[in-house]
Automatic annotation (TrEMBL):
This is High-affinity branched-chain amino acid transport system permease protein livm. Signal peptide: none annotated. Keywords: Cell membrane, Membrane, Transmembrane, Transmembrane helix. PANTHER family: HIGH-AFFINITY BRANCHED-CHAIN AMINO ACID TRANSPORT PROTEIN BRAE (PTHR30482:SF10), HIGH-AFFINITY BRANCHED-CHAIN AMINO ACID TRANSPORT SYSTEM PERMEASE (PTHR30482). Its main location: membrane. One of its GO terms (cellular component) is plasma membrane. It is a multi-pass membrane protein. The chain crosses the membrane at residues 12-31, 63-82, 88-107, 161-181, 212-235, 247-273, 285-310. It holds the Pfam family BPD_transp_2. InterPro entries: ABC_transp_permease (IPR001851), LivM-like (IPR043428). It is found in: Cell membrane. The keyword Acetylation does not apply.
Amino acid sequence: MNLILLKDKRRIITLTFSFVSILFLVVYPFIFKGYLVRLATSIIMYVALSQIWNILGGFAGYINLGLVGFIGIGAYATGVFMNLGFSIYLSILIAGTISTIVSLFLGPPILRLKSGYYSIATYALAFVFREISNNLNDITGGGTGLALPISGMSILTMNRYFYYNMLVLTIIVTLICIRMSKSSLGYGLHAIKEDEDAAKALGINTTAYKSIGFTISSFLSSVIGGMYAYWLTYIDPISAFDSKMSVLVIIMAMVGGAGTVLGPIIGGVAISLVSELLWSNFIEYHTGFLGMVLILTVIFLPQGVMDLFLHRKEKLSFKNFGKTIQENLKKYRI
């Protein structure tokens, strides 16, 4: 009885917190303006990308270093179709469809690779996409880049427009990830992360599960990439396929807690704010600091910040936290 009441209490707290958070996000552009709205839009976008990366990187343990490859495909496809007269929403759907087709062809052979080989392959894939965009001068504009149609809205209206569009997309991504984590697909991906060979022995079609996860993440990242391109109004091969974006997304997911739904949200918000602070005031230390954050997270909190909350009875004390650090130091022989 007490257990049921505890679960109900947690559910009420979760729903209340979610409602208040969404309500705050809805009214945010009317409270703040200009730079703060654009910053919030960027944070929301990175939260979505972090959750998308988490589908394979967190749930299945397949570290994708080339998520930006499909972000770039989405950006360019959206730009091309908008210049042909299509609406932004139809353009990003077409972009997502193109990425889905590409992922269906490339996913199975790449996903047969394991560990570092898979990561290297995804990293190389992003460079291949970048070179293709760089050489399709008649379609993508080559190295000169591609300009997207300007909306013609006022700055205030435009900031709110992109904020709300990115917010809706991020909520959709979050709901998909929540549903996935509680589905047979989510359980299958978690089984792959724990022991892929054992999962195969139990009859789980690991190739199919990984391919589905890869395809979903490719589609969603392209949709976000398309909206991102429209927000920028201009893209080129370097900005559309910026490998630093992939690294930043990985850091966010791992700091928050890869393999959980809430972890990428926490990491996305925290790292975005820290990154913006460093970029504004200590630009020369920006990249180095983020790299250090990832290293320290892997050593001291390999399961991310969420691990502290999931096992709070055991770890939320200086003594147990110190013990956890010592165990990880011993594990990595430091």
